Amino acid sequence: MLRNKKNKIVVGIVGLGVGAFHLKNSLLNKNTFVKYICDTNETRLQFYKKKFNVPKATKNFNNIVNDKDVNLIIIASNDKDHFNQVSKSLKNNKHVFVEKPMCLTMKDLNTIQKIKKQKPNLYISSNLVLREHPFFKNLFKNKKKLKKIYFLEGDYNYGRLEKLTRGWRGKIKNYSVILGGGIHLLDLVLKLKKKKVKEIYTMSNKIITDKFKNTTDDFAVSLLKFEDNSIAKISSNFSSSTDHHHIFNIYSQKFSYFYKRDKSEQFFRENEKKNKKEIKYKFDNQMKGQILNNFIKAVRTKTKKLITPENELFYLMKICLLMVKSHKKNKIIKL
Ligand SMILES: NC(=O)c1ccc[n+]([C@@H]2O[C@H](COP(=O)([O-])OP(=O)(O)OC[C@H]3O[C@@H](n4cnc5c(N)ncnc54)[C@H](O)[C@@H]3O)[C@@H](O)[C@H]2O)c1
């Protein structure tokens, strides 16, 4: 699968968990040449190097960022390393596709924005996969139907608690279930509303993982009020005894839309007299890969048509970090 780098976007991929998925997609994309993979785990690194015949495998991120050939860095390392890797990449003139969350503090977000301002020709985006789900794509397309959305609710039901209690998520400073999970639902809320948030309040608890003294709260719920007085509720539910799934409900003047699972129970209804309309959508890995393909296309053609443009990404991060701040300070944040 190895291809010549001539006329291709030269890519380095950091972190080979979900990053292995980006690796496969980059190898399938005819406009990219994967020069590097990087992982601090030697076994994983060598496994993928051998499997896909990648020219360079390194444990040291600096080898990628200092290579002048590299145009695009895909960052899928632990959350705590995103800030350093994003800022170094931008400073070294690399386009950046970073897994969510882009960073863990407001200070770091401000720094990234400052660096980015000095690099207007670089692209940065994030892997907010639900934007490509056909249910939401359809909603975004038909947004005009949704007049006066007054309430939205999104639940991120993780169902993979051991990743918090036993993996890196439970060990890093500033880890937050909001930045790790609720961010996906917040992103859909902000995209649908297209209004500014004016108030935020978050409550959280740690009832289910109370035995794990050093881990963060495993459940958080945030309320957001928008400038048009509509309200959204987002829960980041890492303690759910469920499979991994999301719930998303939208209430507007005439229509209500309900999204319950990846594969079933998606429907909308107008009122009691009319039947609810069920819509079933397929959402597979190929569709999820479109976010990265779109990014590569934007970099290649220098168009601004990103699925997640930079301004939306930065605003999402800001609101997400304020949701975390509200939880830490236990107070309503007014913007
Ligand atoms: N967009 C999504 O839907 C989605 C889904 C899953 C994970 N993620 C994000 O992807 C990132 C990785 O999560 P994961 O589930 O793949 O974790 P993971 O633990 O499965 O994989 C991370 C890999 O990165 C390596 N790594 C960590 N820090 C590194 C560093 N500084 N340099 C090089 N390699 C490093 C680890 O050794 C590991 O192999 C996280 O930021 C997570 O939030 C996003």
CATH class assignment of the largest domain: Alpha Beta
Classify the beta-strand content into a percent band.
Answer: 15-25%
Question: What do the pLDDT scores average to?
Answer: 92
Distance linking N and C termini: 50 Å
User: Could you list the spans in which at least 5 consecutive residues all have pLDDT below 50?
Assistant: none
What is the CATH architecture annotation of the largest domain?
2-Layer Sandwich
Helix content: 25-40%
Using only C-alpha atoms, the radius of gyration works out to: 20 Å
The number of E-state strands comes to 15
Fill in the CATH topology of the largest domain: Dihydrodipicolinate Reductase, domain 2
DSSP helical segment count = 11
Task: Catalogue the ligands.
Answer: nicotinamide-adenine-dinucleotide
Element-level helix/strand string: EHEHEHEHEHEHEHHEEEEEEEHHHE
Count of separate structural domains? 2
- Lateral arrangement of strands in the main beta sheet: 14-13-12-11-7-10-9-8-15
CATH homologous superfamily annotation of the largest domain: Dihydrodipicolinate Reductase, domain 2
Principal-axes geometry comes out as: globular
The secondary-structure class comes to: alpha/beta
Report on the biggest sheet: 9 strands, mixed
Could you walk me through the main structural features you see in this protein, from its secondary elements to its overall organization?
There is one protein chain. This protein is of the alpha/beta class and 335 residues long. It folds into two domains: 9-122, Rossmann fold (3-Layer(aba) Sandwich); 130-284 and 317-334, 2-Layer Sandwich (Dihydrodipicolinate Reductase, domain 2), CATH 3.30.360.10. The chain has helices spanning 19-28, 42-52, 61-65, 79-91, 106-117, 134-141, 162-165, 177-193, 285-288, 290-301, 310-329, and strands at residues 9-14, 32-38, 56-58, 72-75, 95-98, 124-126, 151-157, 197-205, 219-226, 231-237, 245-251, 256-259, 266-269, 277-279, 333-334. It has a nine-stranded mixed β-sheet with strand order 14-13-12-11-7-10-9-8-15, with helices on one face. The chain has a six-stranded parallel β-sheet with strand order 3-2-1-4-5-6, with helices on both faces. Helix 4 runs parallel beside helix 5 (106-117) and helix 8 packs across helix 11. The radius of gyration is 20 Å and the shape is globular. The termini are far apart. The relative contact order is 0.14. Bound molecules: nicotinamide-adenine-dinucleotide (NAD). Residues 14-18, 38-41, 44, 61, 76-79, 81, 99-100, 127, 129, 168, 180 line the site of nicotinamide-adenine-dinucleotide (NAD).
